[in-house]
Amino acid sequence: MTRRTLRTFSAAVAATAAIALALTGCSSNSAGGGGEAGGESAGAVRMGTQPWLGYGQWYVAEDQGYFADNTVDVKLSSFNADADVNAALAANKLDMANVGAQAALQFMEQGVDVSIVLLLDSATEADAILSSEKIGSVKELKCKSVAFEKGATSEILLAEALDDNGMSFDDVKVIESSADKVTPMVLAGRVDAGVTYEPYVSEAIAADKGVRALVTAGDYPGLITDVLVVRNDFLDKHPDEVRSVIQSWDDAVAFTAEDPAKGREIIAKGVGSNVADLESAFDGVHYYTLAENRELLTGEYLTETLPALVTVAKRIGLIEGDVDAKRAIRSEYLS
C-alpha cells in the first residue's frame, strides 16, 4: 500500500460540508441567532466540537452559565468526525472549532485563514491503539488491519508508534474509519487493531472481550494536544467575544478543579456517556488553564511542541509544505 497522501481541505469541503451540517447537534440553550462571522454583530458565536473529553469544559461553561456571565452567546454544534467539523469551519459555517493541533496546521497549509488562540488539553491515557490481547507489541501489527481516522490525532499516534518500532503505514493494512466506528470494529473482530480516543477507549475495554490498550498517548508525552482555532476574520472583528469565550473556558476549568465530581458529571453527559465508565479516562486528560496558556503559547508549546508536531505531520504526509508554527498562534487574546 502507498504512503498516505495529503488530505486537501479544498476538495473535502464541497463534498462534506452538507454532511457536516446534517450531523450537527446544537446543545446550546442560548436564544441568540447565529449571525454571519465578520458581521457588525457577532450574534451567537458558532463553535464546532465533538464528543471528546478534552472539549468537555465547554459543556461545563454552558451548564454553569459562564458564557452568559462573560456576556457572550455561544452556540455549540457537535460533530462525530474530525473531517466534518473541519469542513464546516473551512466552509465558514463555524466561527471557531475545537480540533487536534495537526488539523490546525493542515488548515493553515491549505489556506484556511485561522489561528490557534487557546491550548485546550493534552492526552496521556485518553488516546490509544486498541488491539486484541493476542497482539503483544506494535511490531506484531505488521500486515495486520488497523482502523483509524486519517488526518486526526489517531493518525499521529499510530505514526509515532510505528516509527518507534522501525515501521511505517506501508507495514499495516490501513482501514479508514471515524473514531466513533473504531471500537465496534475492533470488538467485532473486523479489524485487528484500531486507534481512537475516549469515551470509545473505555467502552472497548469495559466490553470485556479481550481488547486492551496496546499503546497510549502517554507513551509519547505532548504529542496529542487539542486547540481552539478561530477564523481570522472573526478574530479581527470580534476580539471581545473571543476573549469572553476563552475566559469562559478558564472559569469552567476552575469549576471542575474545585468540584471534580460535578464537573465530570456534566462532561460525561455532554459526550454521551457516564462518569463510571470514564473514571480512568478523565485521569488521562489535562485541561489547560488560562495561566498555563499564557506561559505555553508564548513559550515551550510555541517554540518546541508545535514545531515538533510539524515535523511528524510532514513525515507522514499530513502536510507537505512549510508551515511556520510560530505564526500559527495568536496569543493576544489571552490577556
Dominant shape: globular
CATH first level of the largest domain? Alpha Beta
The profile of the biggest β sheet is: 7 strands, mixed
Number of domains: 2
**Helical content (DSSP H or I, runs of 4+):** 40-55%
CATH architecture of the largest domain: 3-Layer(aba) Sandwich
Any low-confidence stretches, pLDDT <50, length ≥5? 1-40
| Helical stretch tally | 14
The name CATH uses for the topology of the largest domain is: D-Maltodextrin-Binding Protein, domain 2
Tell me the name of the CATH homologous superfamily of the largest domain. Periplasmic binding protein-like II
Order of helices and strands: HEEHHEHEHEEEHEHEHEEHHHHEHH
* Physical arrangement of strands within the biggest beta sheet: 1-3-2-4-11-5-12
What's the gist of this structure?
Residues 58-261 form the SsuA/THI5-like domain. The protein has 335 residues and is an alpha/beta fold.
